[in-house]
Amino acid sequence: MKQILFLLFFLCSIIGFSQYQKGTLLFKNNTTKEGFIKVRSHDGIKFKENEDDKPIVYNHFQVNSFIIDGATYSYVKRNENDNGPQILKEVLKGTINLYVIDIQGGEYFTTFGDSELPIMMTAPSSSNYYMVINNKLIKIGRKLRNRHLKMLKDCPSLIAQINQEEILKRNVVTAIDFYNSNCGKIIEN
């Protein structure tokens, strides 16, 4: 029963996110095109200038980023020798670029122990942050940790505010924005 409900939820999610959305493509040659965009996980982006047109597939070799509903999504190069860059939602641009992947929560049914009675559970939404420093992608997660603070050590005013809890470690956007506004030098690791 759990598997059927999970499969149904999963299929509904895929169908909901597989629709074309009005947006703008930003190409590597600094040109743009407005139309309808459908993001494909590993196969690039499908694009149609008009809803009735045949789609054209673009990938990270042609496109830098795209804008949907006012949010910019960029191809960000990974550090390892992976299959290619990853599409991440842009949050801040500066000395440190900040990106996020929002994970949608939801409700699902489960059972505990020998019980046959299903119980509705709620999974919370969360955000996983990534920062790019000197062209190096660094996963932050949901909050800054001590290893991240070591990378930001050239900004003592930020470290002091975090240590005094004026800026909380879970306020990643506020911390990186403070860094970019007040300390914005290129960091050497």
Structure commentary:
The chain contains 4 helices and 12 strands, in the order H-E-E-E-E-E-E-E-E-E-E-E-E-H-H-H. With 189 residues, it is an alpha+beta fold. A hairpin with a 4-residue loop joins strand 7 and strand 8 (97-103). The chain is flat.
Task: List the helices and strands in order.
Answer: HEEEEEEEEEEEEHHH
- Spans where pLDDT lies below 50 across 5 or more residues: 13-17
Count of helical regions: 4
Based on secondary structure, the structural category is alpha+beta
Oligomer: single chain
Radius of gyration: 20 Å
Main β-sheet: number of strands, strand sense, barrel status? 10 strands, antiparallel
Fraction of helical residues? 10-25%
What is the tally of beta strands?
12
**Overall mean pLDDT:** 82
Strand content: 35-45%
The global form is flat
- N-to-C span: 51 Å
Q: Biggest sheet: strands side by side, in what order?
A: 4-3-2-1-5-6-7-8-11-12
Main attributes?
189 residues; alpha+beta; ten-stranded antiparallel beta sheet; two-stranded antiparallel sheet; 4 helices; 22% helix
Could you write a compact summary of the structure shown?
The strands form 2 sheets. A 10-stranded antiparallel beta sheet has the order 4-3-2-1-5-6-7-8-11-12, covered by helices on one side. The chain has a two-stranded antiparallel sheet with strand order 9-10.
